[in-house]
Write a structure and sequence with these properties.
single chain, three-stranded parallel beta sheet, 54% helix, Transposase_31, double-stranded DNA endonuclease activity, Transposase (putative) YhgA-like domain-containing protein
Amino acid sequence: MYGYIYILFEHKSYNDPRVLLQLLKYILRIWEEKYNTKTNKLPIIIPLVIYNGENKWNIETKLINLIEGIEELPEIMKQYIPTYQYEIYDFSPEEKLGIVGLANLKAILQTTRVARVKTGKKFDEELRRAFEFLVGIKDKKTFNELFESCMLYLMYTRDDINIEKVEEVAKKVMDERGELIMTIAEKLKNEGMEKGKIEGEKELIIEILNQRFGEDFDKRLENKIRKANEETINQIKKNILSITLEELKDLVK
């Protein structure tokens, strides 16, 4: 006897009250695809929500609690209600959840947390922690790519910081890699100067979506984003970390 456990990940950057319904749709799609016609059985699916909004996650995690008047219903009625729950990993600044795992993963998760912290001393502290995780990456190529991606992400998601500020904090933590940091910073600054604001934003969107979706994010989508108007670009920006491929295709069709 053997089976599979499916882990369903969903990323949220804001408190979404409909997340239970959204996850349920994903679960049903997986079950429809993975239904075992020989045994007439379904695989177990564990839904995980990763959240990095400004405030703590405060959305219900159990489907049955969305049913109106559930407290007054007799137990015999509750057996007819489908139910499941999801796990929430809250990386918002208020929650202060400890980040564990490989240096790469810790750096990425900490960077998403930094993006939600207000500027000032707290911002500098959280940014420094992200760079401390990056220091743990020994492979030079991996470090270069991840450091550049983290800087791009912060510049893209924050209007109140610039590359000089990020560079300043990074050099304090990674002094021995100062020359490399300056090279990457100079590259990003030059790219920003060469492109107009909207064109630069489009390229940053493409960069982030390429990393999110990999091969599923094809050249046709890239070209449609480059041709999209400012209103569409702003919609994509607002939901850059939670937008699905289907939603993206609908926006730029």
